[in-house]
Structures
1.
Amino acid sequence: MRPDTPAENVDHPAEAARLERTADLYPEDAEALLLRAAAHRELSGDRPAATALYDRLLSADGTLDNPHLVRALKASNLWEYGHEAEARAIIEGLRAAAPGDPAAWVIVAESLESHDELESAQETFTQGVKALVADAEHPPVAAHPLFFGRHRVRRMLGLPHDDWDVLADSLHSMPITLDELHDPKRVWSLGSDNPAELAAEISRLRAELGAYREALSRPYPVAVLHWPAPELTELLAAYPALESEYPSHGTHLATIESSLRELAASGTPNLGIVTGTVPSYEAFAASESTSPSDPTLLPQYATTLAARGRAVAWPPGRGVGCWCGSGKGYGECHGVGG
């Protein structure tokens, strides 16, 4: 959500302005684009401008995909530049609303944590876990930060491990264990006068940061275009020249899966799927002064959708439905044999 790029390498005000202009051109994607713009405003230090963008989104609350996320980001931003009372009020409202998005819980809990309210942060992480994934043996990837944040805060509070802390350990994939990663003594070691302790801690931090940056190394996924059956039928009826690209819907779905597996096997990271619609495709063709019948336009359309925040990560996480929309789990559908 928040760009993880040093300020000296990115002109954050310019990038925010570019995203805001893009949001004006593509109002259907304004939510994702303006959230990224607000992140750049925060990174540039212009927190009031970021708040204005959050307010702009919330003024159209009825059309937002995730208003709770926007409110959580607004609360976190407000607290950072002195509006603590308003931030607290928003956080309490969000906890009472029990949002269905793990990210909203994580943001407000981390906001409390960053202001040394560890007990409240632990309660918020725990409330989020109970509300969303309390009984899940394999919680979705999006919920993992809830478990990791809860583990971290409980470690700082000196609380003993419980079943959810054990689950957090099992979900953690980095070579450094969560117990070591969240050890409060590591913070103290940064102030040590012992060169060996400092060198060891710097090595650990480099390993952690390297893994984190690797996951964020691309601004948007390498995405493959997916047409649901009704959209593909409409597309081919309007532009029969594309039939050579899409002999049948079943073949189209199989091609998507095989293409993504080939990309994964070649070492390409950060893969995704974008779903097309005929009106959106026609509008894109018009913006490029090109006929929708031109097959070379299709990958450009996919790239543009990904850049506008429309991509869904591939492969789906464990327990998540298949990307094709069949209603089956991925492992029982296109993920069979994967």
2.
Amino acid sequence: MKRVIYSVGLFLVVLFLCSGFFLSYQVTEMKERIHILETDTAKAKQEVSALSNMREQDFIFERYEEGKWKRESYRVSAYGTNHVIFRQEKENQESEKGFILQVEDGYVVVYQEGKEQVYEYTDIPLEALPLQMQSEVLLGKPVENLDSLYSFLENYSS
């Protein structure tokens, strides 16, 4: 009889120990899941707040196409949990206009294309340009956009 009581007692002790280990394992697993959910929620809140801060920010994409740099500007117009909608913004009209390089009093002068108004006086003497460029400027060298104009001015300014 004593043996049966000890056996049942030993069985109960082993049962309690096993159930304790099993429950502690389950609790640890639940804590890890809760931690993962909390970090995911925090990340989602940061992303949403970052998007709300970027709502008025412009995103500019540049690419080289057909021998020219193309520049496109976008703005966030709406967003959700699985999507972001961008709206393309019109570029500054001045950067899309062309220019004409001509000579006045021995110096290169920049005119806006289609207008007879001087856009900018430069301190670049005609003699400082290579011969090929001098002949182009004397005939009225066209420049496609503001970026090309600034590139020219940087290359030939002293």
